[in-house]
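User: My notes are a mess, but here's the protein and zinc ion's SMILES. Can you give me a structure?
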Amino acid sequence: MFCPECGATDVEMIDGICKNCFLKKFQLMEIPENITVTICKHCNAKLEEGKWKDEYIPEEEIIYRALERNITISDLAENEEIELEIDQMRGTIAECYVEAVATVLGEEVVETHTPDVKINYSVCPDCSKRNAGYYEAVIQLRADDRELEDEEIATAEEIINRTLDKQFKKDKLAYIPQVAKLKEGNDYYIGSLKSAKKVVEHLKEEFGGTTKESPRLISEDKSTGKGLYRIWIALRLPKFVKDDFVKYHDNVYQVSDVDGNRIQVINLENQDIIA
Ligand SMILES: [Zn+2]
Ligand SMILES: [Zn+2]
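Assistant: No problem, the inputs look usable. Here's the predicted complex:
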């Protein structure tokens, strides 16, 4: 046998040519010269197959991941090691350097490529809603037959913020586009109904009280006839708070505990506890 390319004889043949000639033509990896990634300019979520995902990943990491996803290594490669580098940013284009080292047919093969990763900036639907001040629910914090205490408002806002921070990991509409301070209480606008309900649940655990939901039709989808509703959730804190004095049947009681559903009082004359 001899190699038709170089005429070498008595050599190992692969695909009809000698190993040397094979390795000369061999391509270790394939990677497109131009790669485009579409990301949201606000949250860095990436658009992939029509879906936005993986928000808050640094841009560099997005570029590295785009390179990795686009590399195909030959099946003949063994012990391959791939090095990725961003040479420089030219506007929204990252000029990259990719080097692969592998063992192929017992020989070390090194191959380099210089692909460009272009970042296409867009805005994901959640961020565009957020920018437009979109909200699905309003929590109306009120007190029953009295004004809210400053301390209650401070505690409530702490609970609201803490709950939304936690919700935000899975619900990007867990935000407050606005707070309206009214004479009768505060209105907290919440991006998503789901997160608003979670907030109300936690507020009720802390303060007790009653809730009432009133949906309002905002608009109607002409094609489906389906309505878009916004829900107003009124949370009314109990009339009495802990340590309040209550007069009832000529006895004076002090409120010792209030939770979601009940109130506990102490008769100040005989220290009887009534729940
Ligand atoms: Zn040859
Ligand atoms: Zn976004």
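The mean pLDDT is 90.
User: Great, I'll file this with my notes.
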